[in-house]
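Q: what sequence does this backbone want?
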């Protein structure tokens, strides 16, 4: 196989779509699998869609997902990705080459004329295609009239001339051979009347000069591929290989669209998904390396990646699965990373002053019970400050007649406990229960209530261990005071 060089070629629309991330990721896995190169090219030929900051935003989201690019050419005085708006001359030159070779032509139709042509006739199934033999172009106008219009600077476009009897066949690695007849392909505009290239021209010229070996992109570009294949042939260039990735669908099997909720990678990041879980989930949208499991490291994904095993049918973007995957990662992600993820939420809750070691212990206490690290301050506020709220209904139910007596005894017992870890706390509670001939429940419920104010949480003894002796004793004594003063009645 020739040297692998792939590219991710987004239009800077303002954010990275999850489908875009899937495309970038598959390119990345493919390049890494073969020790090839991956480049980033910003396709900004449609200047009317310019969005301030869109490129930085894209790069940040890609970087967050762990995708880095191989080339950083100097563009407009700074180093960054390839940018098409810096390369317009190259595209114009190549439109001219096609004109000279007879593969392209000038057309002078006005927007109104084009609209009239495209307006569907009643009963027509598809919009009519541009008919070179009747519209206003160099073939119907003749050389003299064409020159006259050019001289008087009449607006024009340059169109690709696709003969109706052309038979365009290309191979898609995922879908096999595809043949399209010239009849069914529009004479694509290559250069617009403002002199800017269309996506098709710029894309093919760039892929050629950037020596792209494989084009891996979403299925929505499949209808463009016959035009591109034709362009490579018209220039006399070797075609790259093509692979079109399956559409992303929502759980109702419709195309995933912005209206149906979050599709921006940055939103998932902000929600607190783990990078590794999110990337793992995205990687499985259309491909499963072994088919027998769901959790893969990036190294495994690179090792197993095989374009020919990518599915043809649409891949369902299932948020429930993403959430499940996230919880799987909570179990395996190192505590230090969890602490880092919890930090912003802790800061904004006013709990920024705790050291990593303590935050890590709290996380380990509750990580199987939360979905996102940013839930931490709300889930266990009592681990970071005084109890602000008691679950009164629960207390009424669980604080029994003998609870106070038990609590007072345990305060005395625990005051003498200098180890104050789960085992010592549990051991003492068990011994006490045996001595009094009671079950452990009437002991653990009051303990949880007194030290956390809540009905749910991690195990009472584990929680107490992390809270520490001083805090626990203080809270227990305070609770008794509150109880006596009738706060919970
Ligand atoms: N600029 C196109 C996009 O926004 C690139 C399509 C392709 O990869 O050729 O997705």
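A:
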């Amino acid at each position: 196989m020739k040297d692998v060089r792939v590219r991710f070629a987004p239009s800077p629309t303002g954010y990275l779509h999850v489908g875009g991330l899937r495309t970038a990721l598959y390119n990345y896995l493919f390049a890494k699998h073969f020790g090839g190169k991956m480049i980033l090219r910003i396709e900004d030929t449609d200047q009317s869609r310019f969005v301030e900051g869109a490129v930085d935003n894209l790069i940040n989201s890609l970087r967050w997902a762990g995708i880095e690019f191989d080339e950083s050419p100097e563009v407009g005085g700074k180093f960054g990705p390839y940018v098409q708006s810096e390369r317009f001359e190259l595209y114009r030159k190549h439109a001219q080459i096609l004109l000279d070779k007879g593969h392209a032509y000038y057309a002078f139709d006005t927007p109104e004329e084009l609209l009239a042509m495209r307006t569907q006739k009643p009963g027509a199934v598809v919009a009519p295609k541009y008919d070179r033999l009747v519209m206003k172009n160099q073939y119907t106008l003749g050389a003299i009239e064409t020159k006259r219009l050019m001289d008087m600077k009449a607006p024009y476009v340059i169109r690709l001339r696709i003969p109706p009897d052309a038979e365009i066949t290309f191979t898609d690695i995922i879908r096999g051979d595809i043949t399209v007849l010239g009849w069914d392909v529009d004479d694509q505009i290559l250069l617009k009347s403002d002199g800017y290239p269309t996506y098709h021209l710029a894309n093919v010229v760039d892929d050629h000069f950037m020596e792209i070996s494989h084009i891996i992109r979403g299925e929505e570009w499949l209808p463009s591929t016959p035009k591109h294949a034709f362009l490579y042939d018209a220039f006399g260039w070797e075609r790259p290989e093509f692979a079109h990735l399956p559409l992303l669908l929502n759980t109702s099997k419709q195309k995933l669209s912005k209206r149906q909720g979050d599709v921006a990678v940055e939103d998932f990041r902000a929600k607190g998904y783990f990078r590794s879980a999110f990337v793992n989930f995205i990687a499985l949208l259309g491909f499963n390396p072994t088919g027998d499991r769901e959790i893969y490291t990036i190294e495994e994904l690179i090792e197993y990646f095989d374009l020919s095993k990518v599915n043809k049918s649409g891949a369902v973007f299932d948020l429930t699965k993403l959430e499940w995957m996230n919880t799987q990662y909570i179990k395996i992600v190192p505590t230090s990373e969890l602490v880092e993820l919890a930090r912003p939420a802790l800061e904004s809750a006013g709990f920024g002053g705790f050291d990593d070691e303590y935050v890590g212990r709290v996380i380990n206490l509750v990580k199987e019970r939360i979905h996102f690290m940013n839930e931490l301050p709300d889930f266990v506020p009592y681990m970071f400050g005084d109890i602000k709220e008691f679950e009164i209904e629960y207390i009424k139910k669980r604080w029994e007649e003998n609870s106070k007596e038990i609590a007072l005894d345990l305060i005395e017992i625990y005051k003498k406990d200098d180890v104050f870890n789960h085992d010592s706390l549990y051991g003492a509670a068990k011994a006490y229960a045996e001595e009094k001939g009671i079950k452990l429940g009437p002991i653990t419920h009051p303990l949880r209530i007194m030290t956390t104010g809540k009905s749910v949480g991690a195990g009472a003894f584990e929680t107490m261990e992390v809270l520490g002796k001083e805090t626990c004793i203080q809270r227990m004594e305070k609770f008794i005071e509150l109880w006596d003063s009738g706060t919970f009645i």
